Every structure is written in structure tokens, then in C-alpha cells.
Amino acid sequence: MIKSLPNSEPELLKPGVKAPVKETLLTPRFYITDFDAVAQMDISAHNTELQAVVEELRADYNRHHFVRDEEFKQSWDCIDGEKRLAFIDFLERSCTSEFSGFLLFKELSRRIKDRNPLLAEAFSCMARDEARHAGFLNKAMADFNLSLDLGYLTKSRTYTFFPPEWIIYTVYLSEKIGYWRYIIMYRHLEKHPENLFYPLFRYFESWCQDENRHGDFFKALLRSQPQLWNDWKARLWARFFLLSVFATHTLTVFERANFYQSIGIDPRDYNIQVIDKTNETSARAFPVILNVNHPEFFERLEKCSENNLKLSEIANSDRPQVVKFFQKLPLILSTVGHLLKLYMLKPIDAESVRETVS
Ligand SMILES: [Fe+2]
Ligand SMILES: [Fe+2]
């Protein structure tokens, strides 16, 4: 059995309002970018494709989807102990990352409105979707007598600056990995309804189509910018972002193994499936994808996760700082070594196979 991090009782800002989790490398980030550069982006090469994606976003297929039905109206005290804490943690993390998407898209749409109306409309539609997703998750938290103060979160979180190119790579990946995470969970629970302990999961099928459409928009945007896929630098960046997203995913899934086990999902299988599918999908947008079938690929990622769990254990212990430092050092070096070796693995050229997969 996989050992995850122990969940502690939620810390409160005020009664019923949960204090946001401490920011680490693995918690969802809040981004800002160079808004002027996005406003000036030349998208003419892919205008037709972008128009079509915006048309889809405008159609707002899920406008009646996020309505809480009768099944929510009951006490959820039956979900208790470890399972309750693990589920609250899942809700909070998901709500924060949906909300982070909302803030970025809203700001992009506001700042480029007059200069790039097509992109501004797309960002505004995506902000609409992410606000719904975050709001729906926050209402689910209220069923557990907690909520996230999203206004406080907006003001208190650190914002990371990413140039537009990095935003396009990372948001594309996070939308597509989000799609696969939701749909794989949904399909599993469809087959194993005995594990469906809360109605939220039933909403994931249509919900993930929003993420899929957001990903398609970023794919069109990425392909409209040749410098993001047509040279050796783009290939190196693509490998870097794919590996970063997959490594972060592995670490967070194993840290929260008990949540996945609570819905009958094997965390290892889930991680492999999500990464495999996201990597395959990325071949439609990225110049290269990773060779996830290489025998060392998941082995090394899982070694990084073992190191990460040991690092957290050391950080949470009451040993003296200097002891902690020397215990952590070999684990950090080992993780860096595994990541470097993974980065060096020969990637798969996606440009040459694109025609057959799209
Ligand atoms: Fe979302
Ligand atoms: Fe999204």
C-alpha cells in the first residue's frame, strides 16, 4: 500500500472559513503575464481555427450544468475521519486551481479587450467557466462546514510572473491534464458506483469538456505562434514543461494517495494513465512529447515521489535545523539527478506524427 502524507485538521481563518494551505512548489500557482505582449500577438495564421474554438466557447454548453441537485441536500457527517480530511484537501486544491485559472483569464480578457477582441472574448468565456467550477467546489466545501475566502486568496497569494510563451505551454498542459484527471475519475466511478460517496463526481463528465475546450483554445494559440514549436529551443521548452507538469502530478498524487484510495482508485495506475493520456494528447500541439514508455520513465518519477514524502517527513519532524539540512540534502540531490536523467531521455518527434493523431 502507498503511504501518503497524513492530513491534519483544517486550520481556520475565521469560523467556517478555511485558511489557505501553505504555498509550496506543489500548491496551485497564481500567474500574471506580459499583457501587452498578448494584446499584440499576431494570430492571423490560425484565425479560422481560433474563430471556431471561440464559437464553441461562446455556445456555453454547460450553462445549466452546475446546478446542485437534490442529492446534495443531506448531512455529510457520514464522511468522517481520514476520508473527510482527504476529501476536503482534494476540494480545496481543485478549487484553488480553478480559481487561479479564473483570475488569470479574467485579467487577460480585461487588459486586452480593446486591442485583441477575439482573444479577449475567449479569455472571458474561459473565466466564466472557471468561476463556475471554483464556485461549485466552494459550495461542496460548505457541505463540510468550510469554505475558501476567494477574495482573501486573491489578495494574499503570491503571483508568479510567466512570459506569454510559458503561460501558453503550462495552461495548455494544465487544461489537458485537468481533462484527463476528471474523465478518468468519472469513468472509474461509473464502473464502481459503490465508491461514489458524494454527488460532485457525477458532474465531472460535462465539466471536463470545459477543460477540453480550454485546452483546444490554447492548442490553436500555440500553433499560431511558430516560435513555440518550430525550432530546437521550442523542443527543449516543450520537454521541460511536459516533465515539470508530469513530475508535479506524480508528487501530488502520491502525497494524496489516501484520497484516491477512498474512491477505490489505485494512485499508481491513475498517475500512469493520466500522464500517458496527457502526453499522447500533447502531440497535437507540442513539437515533441516524452517517451513515457521508456522503462525508466515512471520508475524515476516514483523515486522522486518517495524522496518527496521523506523530505516532508523530515520537514515536519522536530529535529534541529542542521540535522534536517543534512538529512534533506541527499534526497534533494537524488531528485535533481532523476529529473535530469528523465529530461535527457530521447523524446518523440510529434511534428512528424501529427497528421496521424489529430
Ligand atoms: Fe476548470
Ligand atoms: Fe479550464
From TrEMBL:
GO BP annotations listed: light-independent chlorophyll biosynthetic process; photosynthesis
Pfam families in the record: Rubrerythrin
Pathway info: Porphyrin-containing compound metabolism; chlorophyll biosynthesis (light-independent)
Domain Rubrerythrin diiron-binding per the UniProt entry, residue ranges: 89-222
Cofactor needs: Fe cation
Enzyme Commission numbers on file: 1.14.13.81
Keyword tRNA-binding attached: no
Gene Ontology molecular function: iron ion binding; magnesium-protoporphyrin IX monomethyl ester (oxidative) cyclase activity
Superkingdom of origin: Bacteria
Alphabetical keyword list: Chlorophyll biosynthesis, Iron, Metal-binding, NADP, Oxidoreductase, Photosynthesis
Reactions that this protein is recorded to catalyse: Mg-protoporphyrin IX 13-monomethyl ester + 3 NADPH + 3 O2 + 2 H(+) = 3,8-divinyl protochlorophyllide a + 3 NADP(+) + 5 H2O
Protein's job: Catalyzes the formation of the isocyclic ring in chlorophyll biosynthesis. Mediates the cyclase reaction, which results in the formation of divinylprotochlorophyllide (Pchlide) characteristic of all chlorophylls from magnesium-protoporphyrin IX 13-monomethyl ester (MgPMME).
Similarity-based family: Belongs to the AcsF family.
Protein name: Magnesium-protoporphyrin IX monomethyl ester [oxidative] cyclase
Origin species: Chlorogloeopsis fritschii PCC 6912
